Structures
1.
Amino acid sequence: MTDGAQHAPRNGSSTMPETNRPGRAWWRPLVDEIDRRVTPPANKLVRTNIFADTVATATRLEVRLRRRVQRQSTWLLHQYNLPAAEDIRKVRAQLAAVEARLRDVSEHLEDQQHEARKQASRPARSTTTKATTKPTTKPQANDPS
Amino acid sequence: MEASPSTDRLEGIRQEAQRSLFRARHGIQLITGTREPVVGATPKDVVWRRGKAQLSRYRSDKRTRRPPLVIVWSVISRAYILDLRPGQSFVGQLLDAGIDVFMIDWGVPDAVDSGNNLELYVDNYLPRALERALEVADSDELDILGYCAGGVLSCLAVAGHPETPVKNLAVMATPIDLGHIEGMIKSFRRGALEVDDLIDETGNIPADAVYRGFASLRPTTDIFKYATLWERLWSDEFVEGYTAMAGWIRDQTPLPGALARQMVDLLLRRNVLVTGEIPIAGRTVRLADITCPLLNVMAEDDHMVPPAASEVLSKLVGSTDVTELRIPAGHVGLAAGRDAKRNTVPRILEWLNAHSS
């Protein structure tokens, strides 16, 4: 991911004059040597099945733990008739679902208007063939209920 | 006249003091986050918008070549990498070559977009955006350039919508055989991880998880990157380039939950792209239906989408005119930085020019 960063420009209008450009830092060969020794085995390790499974297990454990804490804190807050983050999440998800539905309806209307405009202008440009507008259905945002 | 050793020593001390001053200034700017690099500066106009997706047309007074080129960006990262910095801009180079450049950017999904799926991008957004590009450019045909997952969407849109007048299709670092993709993807492929394990309260895979997935492929990069930064912290230009690129790398977008589920089930576990027949919206989209000239650009040192994952596309399409291009670069270097400027863009331009008549 950082190959570009390494290729970032190294010449040009630095505020340091070009003649003042220093040579390599004294510690750089040491860092490069460590890089040469450490990076290949590390890259190899992250491509093994064991690594993939370990990361997956750690992720699942973390998620399970977080959800358990969330459930318990929600239960506790509900005992005192207080809203928990989970309740807010549900409301936000419902709002998002409504907004997504509205978006679909307005897009559908937009498509119909566009199609009507195209039909109206077709006699004038009957030879032009362009991408058709094919109405598609799409699922709504996650409904928490 | 030669300087005396004591003068040399004094000059050396003076330079080192000056560099230390610059290091301190840049270091403080980086730590406090007050150094904001200018990215995506090439002027453009949004000519179409739907949901979070938008099609922009870059302004230019040099448009000499037809048809227009529509860049289809990936759904995972931010599109400004192609216009990272003035003088280092992929888009800028295309504009200088006289191309009318459009860009489809999918935006940053939120809870409203958690239901966005492959059908939405391939059958709804892309055909409409391409149609709008044709209208705006007043052209009867267009060229498409897809990058990474944007390449997959481009292929599916071209194959699934033969009515779209695509003259040439170019794809860069496009994952087709997902059996070759490593990292967190492997955990999904092996069934050790499910999409629902990563989905957050918005119904999407959060940007941070996407970033961690990519970063895990090169675990030591961050450490050695800081060594390079420290070494060159005195240089304004280096720090500018570093902050722009490092900022982009961290600036991932969430992945819509519905799309993530489809990608894992369909593209990863069933690896349907490699069969050339992809079920979308109740029909089968066949890559063999791509009959326009195809340019398949691969990065030889790509650790995310290795050439083995992309090269199969050349065999799956129905085009008789297929060109494979291997650039000695990494996944990001293919689109930004020195390698892109010297290799990728000139060679893509060469191919487009050869196929423009």
Note: Residues 44-177+284-354 of chain B form a domain with the Rossmann fold fold (CATH 3.40.50.1820).
2.
Amino acid sequence: MTKIKTHVLCCGGTGCKASASDEIISTFEKLLKEKGLQDEVQVIRTGCFGFCEKGPIVKMLPDNTFYTQVKPEDVEKIINEHIIKGRKVTDLLYLDPENKQHVADSKHMGFYKKQLRIALRNCGFINPEDIDEYISRGGYEAIAKVLGEMTPQQVIDEITKSGLRGRGGAGFPTGVKWGLCAKNQADQKYVICNADEGDPGAFMDRSIMEGDPNSIIEAMAICGYAIGATKGLVYIRAEYPLAIHRLQVAIAQAREYGLLGDDILGSGFNFDIELRYGAGAFVCGEETALIHSMEGKRGEPTLKPPFPAVSGYMAKPSNVNNVETFANIPIIITKGADWFASIGSEKSKGTKVFALAGQINNVGLIEVPMGTTLRDIIYEIGGGIKGGRKFKAVQTGGPSGGCLTEKHLDTAIDYDSLMAAGSMMGSGGMVVMDDTSCMVAIAKFYLEFTCEESCGKCSPCRIGNKRMLEILNKITEGNGTMDDLQELRNLAAVIKDTALCGLGQTSPNPVLSTLDNFWDEYVEHVVDKKCRAGVCKKLMNYVIDKDKCIGCGKCAKNCPAEAISKTSYIAEGHKLPSMEIDTTKCIKCGACMSGCKFDAISVK
Amino acid sequence: MAKVKSLAELKAMREKLQSNLDLREKSNNPDALVQVKVAMATCGIAAGAKQVMEHMMEKADQLKLSVVFTQTGCMGYCHAEPTIEVKVPGKDPIVFGHVDNKRADEILEKYVMNNELVEGIIPVNYEKI
């Protein structure tokens, strides 16, 4: 029998799938067969590698060659050159933006150097649809250890000792949460996995479920044993079809192996998991709203207490944890709480997965130890700002978080430092902005999102946020006053104090943090009626430089509002009269400027 | 599929399955392992490099040696094909020429396991960048 000499790992995450990774895989399989290499080369569809900016990714093992932006037509070249002749295909290698050199080995790429992958340990390494691969990496040994050697209380103590805190945003200690639920007696309890990832730009949980679904199943079973529950429910949004599919496959395989179901590993412990689909409402990420949605009721939050640990799903004690929190559980059990607690900062242990997005070179999924600085994340891992522009702000924590600025770049990020800086960890979305972003418009964007997603049950959130949004609209349209800025602060304080659930209580954060960190920009909008980033359309005017304009008339042709006409002024050296824009007719679409070949049109 | 009934069964299963992932696990930290590069250009293949690589992989398994095998292009020693480069952690790589199955066994048993030099070493007198 011939031995397999090369493994080809091809990303099968949603991002890479969208750029034809399925076709790459099938081309590999087809061509390898044609060339008689199917017994020597194994092609594996994995989860996300994280380096989505340069997807689709194809990784060759054992020599760790990392091919980026591979197209189906490149496959033949990879086979002929790399697999048959042992030569790397240089033009598909990652190009280091700094020294312009090709990097063959992913270990030497800036993007991976500072990362530590715990929750993502199997993502991009195993085939998520093959439980055998998970098992051969030590999978399901944690549940076996728990069932065989530990009492439920020992499990809870171990998780508490590890210092693991909830990765969904607020950072509540996971072990304590389990302990609360374990205390309550009931004929039925539930373990709930919150996979309702809703922050704009966040895809951490999706990638974990797509890349390593078995780790979630194993962790939920461990939690079930610890709190005395035999039923697990995953609340997942219906717009994650691939994650749903992978979870279903993993659950079916685990059942076949008897790792879910009755009498798991001969221990007498029963546990099974079902999926529940959400319709994608942001508020359903809040645990009480999530539970109501699962019960078939409206996805509206209720006051806590009673906490779900006392009265949750179907009024039974329930424990709700986020996907990433669960992904950490099995490895804490196998490697021990002390190992986990040795990673991270004083009060935040372990690592955090972030979805890096925005104006940054390396958009993607990263995992770093708690306590890594924003500078390391943005410049070392993220590769700096796109186009060499100036860094302006980074938004963390989604609609509940805030914007951090240059002065926060050296902050070691963890739950507490982010909170102190006026933002929050959130679920891990990280949107980087450069000087083309208007901070008032950013605050408005997040508030629009909250207004859209507010369930409307309590008036501070439903009406208060609406009023704040109106004020922001007024400001971006050039009608704001200094009193409005004060009014924003007043409203924010009231909403924070009085809203019913986490969504409402944190919704003013994007406004407050931009008011604190970018006060000048607000004042400019209000007093000078200017938007320095050129984003707020009502505050900008397109102007034609009459000395640069050669009078070709292209702008007038492009203008959909017929706002551009000829003047009588002919600049020196030009033959035709220059053009001008009637600002009362102008709709500020920018079509004139993008069409002008002579750089004669600018925004003032 | 049979159900897994105990931790022991799970571990046995892992043991059995592990070899499928062996190649991937090894590539996580290749510098800590013995690395063998087999020159696999046209001349190397013609001289039997494929069979030798196959044989060596099996032999390494038998000897329970953790070795990362990679295929590489022409090393330039066409007079001495098949050629392989062996790098033991902490040592300079050594290139062996005219490697047949017998010599491959020798290299693994004597050089890799006991640090004895064997015949067929090609002096390397160039620098790699």
Note: Residues 114 and 376 of chain A are 8 Å apart (CA to CA).
